[in-house]
Amino acid sequence: MTTDIIGSALLDYQNGNYTEDIKTISSLEEEDVLPLPYLFRDFEQMPELEQMALQLCEGSVLDIGCGAGSHSLFLQQNNIEVTALDSSPGAIATCRLRGLRNTVVSEITLYTDATFDTLLLLMNGVGLAGTLTQLDDFLMHLKSLLKPNGQLLLDSSDIIYMFEKDEDGGYFVPNSGTYYGEVTFTMMYKGSMGKPFSWLYVDLNTLEQAALRQNMSCELIRKGEHYDYLARLKVLSQ
After folding, report:
1. I need a surface site. Which of 60, 108, 167, 193 has the fewest CB within 10 A?
2. 78: Cβ–Cβ under 8 A, 6 or more apart, which residues?
3. What's the CA angle centered on 172, arms 169 and 178, to 5 degrees?
4. What is Dmax (Cα atoms) for the chain?
């Protein structure tokens, strides 16, 4: 079994061996597809929220969960000091092949080597927290990686829309004992299946509350077209 599913797929695409996309199964829906070309998109092909986040980056930047490095490449090409970080060795190998100069293979929760002016968590990168109960510790660690007056830019989605509406216009969310934005994913590629992993989609109000518990502000930058949003978190002055 290949543990680095996404890394294997990214390297195949980078090396001209693209024959299929990554398939995903989640706890919310049936099988879906993650198209590999989308992970290699340029700035013009990115959603508006991602474009805005990149334009808001300043100082030294840590691109967390960088994948194929498309966001980092844009920043590097615009003379912004960026470090691309991912836990996937294949993803980082792909980034290096694409010309990224500063790369790190690490889980973000284990990374303590430097501090940055901007932390970038795109494509719902806050999902790396895994579950809502882990979000506070996740934000606490990210806060430790910020320089004074630094910023954390992230996009996420409120996936309440995936649940059925009741007669009063509210949503019927099964009482599973967990937050409705907690999803379990499994990735498959070329006959190999990765280990299931937890992923968190967090609504803005819940994120605001978690940020306040870490003495951080949470500013809504822009709402997207489909329950998604871009937010900026900063440490509040003491």
Report:
1. 167
2. none
3. 140
4. 55
Tally of CB atoms within 10 A around 170: 10
- The span from the CA of 6 to the CA of 221, in Å, is 30
Q: Model pTM? A: 0.93
Buried-exposed string 139-165: b where 16+ CB fall within 10 A, e elsewhere: bebbbebbeeebbbbbbbbbbeebeee
pLDDT digits (tens, 9 = 90+) for 16-65: 999 999 999 998 877 899 999 999 999 999 999 999 999 999 999 999 99
CATH of 5-166+174-235, one of 3.40.1110.10, 3.40.1000.10, 3.40.50.150, 3.40.50.2300: 3.40.50.150
Strands 228-235 and 22-26: unpaired
CA quadruple 113, 116, 81, 107: dihedral sign: positive
Residues 6+ apart with CB under 8 A from 179: 131, 132, 200, 206
Q: Which of 80, 79, 86, 141 is nearest to 115 (CA)?
A: 141
Where do the structural domains in the chain lie, given as residue ranges? 5-166+174-235
